[in-house]
Specification:
heterodimer, A: alpha+beta, 16 helices, 22 strands, 21% strand, B: 391 residues, Nucleotidyltransferase, domain 5, Dna Ligase, domain 1, 5-stranded mixed beta sheet, 4-stranded antiparallel beta sheet, 7 helices, 25 strands
Chain lengths: 653, 391
């Protein structure tokens, strides 16, 4: 196929329609931001879409988050399956079903059929992350669930507005199953009216260009994206690329990381992603159903095609294969609320494969998304209402070819998300932010270092019955470097109990952990992995990072072999000791392969004695430990070392 | 519309819209209030191009001031909006009172090679396509600031300024069903003139988080008088006399549980909280198409806009005497695929009360005004040209 293929619409009408479709979706987003109730939606965890009469995606918004990409058409088609022949102007339907192509239960989609007179011409869809969907844990992230029955309310397609009339009975029943009924009803209205914005716009276009041209345009914009992507893929060499990334563990099995294998084959203008070799579903919520896995593939790939609009045309040349009931192809009723864990592994693996194809856009691994959820009663208020604390932090993205990674950025699954304002959180939850700053030494070292993560510490104020859950990963499958770059650091949460003064490492995943007023919880986010050999980083750049306090003087020497003399830290006066730097770099180069292959038990002992810290363990010795006790994780270490050998050691000269 | 970009802003009932969510460059958000201006990459120097999908695009890349459009003869060979306007006869060959000479042959060559040949179009068809895409991009920007806020463009006029604004204004207005285009006397220096005409303004606000149902008029009066005192002190300090001070109150409210608030203007003497709440329901319905009479309303913030009215330069006003102006000549101009003979007028010689019909071109030192066929134009007492766009 070539790019001059004849379009039926004249180019101007086509361009006008293409932009108008996207604009109409952006207008939905804008209205949703201004009317939403969920704190999660307010922080931009939402997406909108415009669909043709068959449910195919015509346009998504410009600032939608990556994770909803490639899933909206599935849920629209499922609504059509259920209501076909029974749809009317003024109807609005809802669905949150991950087994029908949705993401997780928290993402509730409201879908409105759009008519021109009596004829159905398309759909608008608004997807928002509600504050709570019931289940046994506030915020509906029950890490311990094995099946959906312990997670949340599953909404298969239902009717929420019938010919413009609000179906209060159905809406109230949904709301009554949540911890936050008033805000759920509010968000239903907010999203239903957001879909009305696109309806108004599409009808305006029909008034101007006629129904035929508009519906033709809805198809033409998909063909256009398909043509553009196929052309670019056809220009790439055919071939096969492979990558493996890991989830930390299966809580129901022994120690050892959970592999996700991806083989990507480019053949002509077609791409096949095959997940053969990926682990079977695991006994936590860290599984992904087919829709979310498809979305991860598209989101990862879209990073390398940033300029094209997103619609179903993009999906036509992508084929995804997965073994039945694997961690990336879970089926009902396997729990999938934590699908973002496999999702980000897939995205990063795709980054790695595409980095080989487009080295100018190459990028190392990004930090892992993390959600901290707590819920209980807020004793600051007279009626002691239930509160739901739901917080995520930004972290570092991977180092790039010729550029350091992006510092303090939201997780790669949700690039449109905001970093949450502490003030907003403190207003609705009995918590106080004690510390929130860039985490020194978090960037994975490399010729181009990873971006920096952050550290945040908070204290629980006047509250009762509070339980906390942490949804994170890469405590063991630590953020990796590429092309000789080094890993960042393990994720995980530390709690300090007010009554006993005891400090306890809780790691990257736990749920329903009881905490009390005065308890202080602290967690870092990792930086991005490094790109290229840190021994090749210009010492002047290391010096600049020391001045900026991104890197400590101590780690400048350990990770980069750059010896820096402090003249006056307050005045930011430092000096590179060139002779010592040359010696330190020679010493590291001569020994680093042996360090990375040292007996892991010896490393475990050094860690227990306090001679080394977790950054030394992963960056220098490539060993994974229980970061609380120092106990060796032999299987995880073996897997981590395999990755380290391939991604780091093999590239050192 | 200038050389590289177009800035769009909306003024409703004499007030500019203000935003607390803007950025100078993407990724660097700014959260203090500013007049809402949406900037897109559509200027006289914006480049036309064809992407891999075979679609015609316009901007945001620009030939800039140098080398500028192909017709500037400085080496750029890619078609720009200015080149398309030259090909269509809308832009004359001599600009800025003769300081810049345009080469129509280079403009033609660029349009031919960049667009006409790749898309299999005639020369003038291609030039019009370039302009149409630019106009569509501008219209979408206007739409984002207008229709998406619940405003009906039929209630507005489009003020076209910047060096290239009046070349495109009538077409953009038509696209959006805006009935009238206003071209000020000196469109190229409007921004500079604006600086001479604005009042001093300060925004004061205070958090006021309360349930509207339990808030009395006195509570609000107390909150307002505190910030009004600050406001008056500030203006006095800047030398504004009491008689030149204007205070406008507003209350930001939301349905309990919502995250964003909506500003509703408040009277200078609050007598009832209920009236304010009703005002909020109405404003919420106007902006977002729904209201929740049964849901509790929260007050979030009180604000005062304190204006120090400064003495304005007096704009010259002339007696309007209806007449048909004398064209300085005619030339061939293309509209909708047809070549027309358009009257050419010299803006410097225009007088108040002049009335004429398109197709016409008005030339002046800092701009060129296009009046499309069937549109009517007249010059008002301030020497604005009012173009009434017709279908």
């Amino acid at each position: 196929m070539n790019s001059t293929a004849k379009q039926d619409l004249d180019p101007v009408t086509f361009e006008v329609l293409k932009n108008s479709f996207i604009t109409s979706v952006d207008q939905m987003a804008e209205q949703m931001l201004r009317t939403c109730y969920s704190f999660v939606i307010y922080n931009r965890d939402f997406s909108n879409g415009l669909h043709d009469a068959d449910g195919n995606c015509v346009a998504q918004g410009n600032s939608d988050i990556a994770v909803h990409v490639g899933t909206l058409h599935y849920t629209c088609k499922d609504v059509i399956r259920v209501f076909k022949g029974d749809m009317y102007p003024g109807d609005v339907y809802a669905i949150n079903d991950p087994y029908a192509g949705g993401t997780h239960f928290s993402d509730v989609r409201l879908i409105r059929p759009i008519f021109d007179e009596e004829t159905l011409i398309g759909f608008s869809q608004s997807n928002g992350h509600w504050s709570d969907l019931g289940g046994s844990v506030p915020g509906s992230f029950n890490v311990a669930a094995h099946e959906m029955f312990g997670e949340a309310v599953r909404i298969t397609p239902i009717r929420l507005f019938h010919k413009g009339k609000f179906c209060a009975d159905v809406a109230n029943m949904i709301a009554a199953n949540t911890r936050d009924p008033a805000s759920i009803i509010g968000d239903i209205h907010s999203q239903a009216q957001a879909t009305q914005v696109a309806e108004r716009e599409l009808q305006r276009l029909v008034g101007k260009y006629g129904r035929d041209q508009v519906t033709q345009g809805m198809g033409a914009v998909q063909d256009y994206v398909e043509r553009a992507v196929r052309q670019r893929i056809a220009d790439l060499p055919d071939g096969t690329w492979e990558a493996v990334d890991y989830i930390d563990r299966d809580p129901g099995a022994g120690e050892g990381m959970i592999p996700i294998h991806i083989k990507m084959t480019i053949k002509g203008d077609q791409i096949i992603y095959d997940f053969e070799g990926s682990h079977p579903t695991i006994s936590s919520i860290y599984n992904s159903a087919h829709g979310a896995t498809f979305s991860a593939v598209v989101a990862g790939m879209k990073t390398f095609f940033p300029d094209l609009p997103l619609n179903s045309g993009f999906y036509r040349m992508v084929e995804v294969k997965a073994p039945k009931n694997s961690v990336v192809s879970a089926e009902w009723p396997v729990a999938v609320t934590g699908f973002l864990m496999p999702f980000e592994k897939i995205m990063n693996a795709i980054f790695e494969m595409w980095s080989k194809i487009m080295p100018e856009r190459a990028i190392a691994c990004a930090f892992n998304l993390e959600y901290l959820l707590a819920g209980g009663n807020d004793l600051r208020k007279p009626d002691k209402p239930i509160y739901m604390f739901y917080e995520w932090l930004p972290g570092g993205w991977g180092g790039r070819n010729g550029k350091d990674g992006s510092d303090v950025t939201t997780a790669c699954f949700g690039t449109g998300l905001m970093s949450q304002p502490s003030e907003g959180n403190e207003r609705v939850n009995p918590t106080r932010a004690d510390e929130f700053q860039i985490k020194q030494d978090s960037p994975g070292p490399g010729k181009w270092r990873g971006g920096a993560g952050v550290i945040k510490a908070s204290t629980l104020l006047e509250a009762d019955n509070t339980v906390m859950s942490y949804i994170c990963d890469r405590e063991r499958a630590v953020v990796w470097g590429v092309e000789g770059g080094l890993p960042s650091m393990p994720h995980g949460l530390m709690i300090q109990h007010a009554d006993t003064g005891e400090e306890k490492w809780l790691g990257s995943v736990f749920s329903n952990y009881k905490i009390k007023s005065g308890d202080k919880f602290t967690r870092p986010t990792a930086g991005g992995g490094g790109y290229g050999d840190p021994m090749e980083r210009d010492p002047e750049r290391v010096l600049q990072d020391v001045i900026d306090e991104y890197v400590s003087v101590r780690r400048a020497e350990l990770d980069y072999g750059v010896v820096i003399k402090v003249i006056d830290a307050d005045m930011l006066e430092y000096e590179i000791d060139l002779a010592a730097t040359e010696r330190a770099r020679a010493h590291i180069r001569a020994n680093r392969v042996a360090w990375a292959r040292m007996d892991p038990e010896i490393v475990s002992n050094m860690y227990r004695k306090g001679e080394i810290d977790e950054m030394d363990a992963v960056r220098k010795y490539a060993v994974i430990l229980d970061w609380g006790t120092g106990e060796l994780m032999p299987n995880s270490t073996r897997q981590f070392r395999e990755s380290f050998e391939k991604r780091s050691v093999a590239h050192w000269s | 519309m200038g050389g590289t970009s177009t800035d769009v802003s909306l003024t409703y009932r004499g007030e500019s819209t203000v935003t607390k969510d803007w950025y100078i460059e993407y990724g660097y958000p700014i959260r203090f209030p500013s007049i809402e201006v949406l900037t897109i990459g559509a200027g006289g120097g914006s480049l036309a191009w064809k992407d891999e999908g075979g679609s015609l695009r316009n901007g945001p890349q620009s030939a800039g001031a140098y080398p500028g459009p192909a017709c500037y003869s400085n080496g750029n060979e890619v078609a720009t909006n200015s080149d398309a306007n030259v090909v269509l006869g809308r832009l004359g060959y001599s600009l800025a009172g003769g300081d810049i000479t345009l080469d129509p042959a280079l403009a033609e060559k660029a349009v031919r090679e960049t667009v006409a040949e790749p898309f299999g179009m005639e020369l003038h068809e291609a030039a019009e396509a370039i302009i149409d895409v630019a106009n569509a991009n501008m219209a979408n920007a206007v739409r984002l600031l207008s229709i998406s806020r619940g405003h009906d463009p039929r209630d507005f006029a489009l003020i076209a300024f910047g060096g290239a604004g009046a070349l495109h204004g009538a077409a953009v207005a038509k696209e959006l069903s805006i009935p009238v285009v206003i071209v000020p006397p000196n469109p190229g220096v409007t921004s500079a003139m604006g600086c001479l005409l604005v009042d001093i303004q300060h925004d004061f606000s205070d958090s006021f988080m309360a349930d509207a149902a339990t808030t009395t008029a006195d509570d609000l009066e107390a909150a307002f008088s505190k910030i009004e005192k600050e406001a008056v002190t500030r203006l006095r300090h800047e030398g504004v006399a009491p008689e030149d001070t204007v205070l406008q109150r507003s209350v930001e409210m939301m349905y309990q549980g919502q995250w964003r608030s909506l500003s509703v203007s408040a009277p200078s003497k609050i007598t009832s909280t209920k009236d304010l709440v009703n005002g909020f329901h109405n404003e919420h319905e106007r902006e977002y198409n729904f209201r929740r009479e049964d849901a509790p309303v929260s007050i979030f913030r009180v604000g005062v806009k304190a204006t120090g009215v400064v003495q304005k330069a007096k704009l010259p006003s002339f007696e309007v005497v209806k007449h048909a102006p004398e064209p300085s000549g005619t030339r061939s101009v293309w509209f909708r695929g047809e070549k027309c003979e358009a009257a050419i007028y010299d803006r410097a010689k225009m007088r108040a009360g002049a009335e004429f019909t398109g197709p016409a071109i008005v030339e002046q030192v800092d701009s060129t005004v296009v009046v499309p066929p069937k549109a009517t134009a007249k010059v008002d007492q301030y020497m604005n040209i009012l173009i009434r766009v017709k279908d």
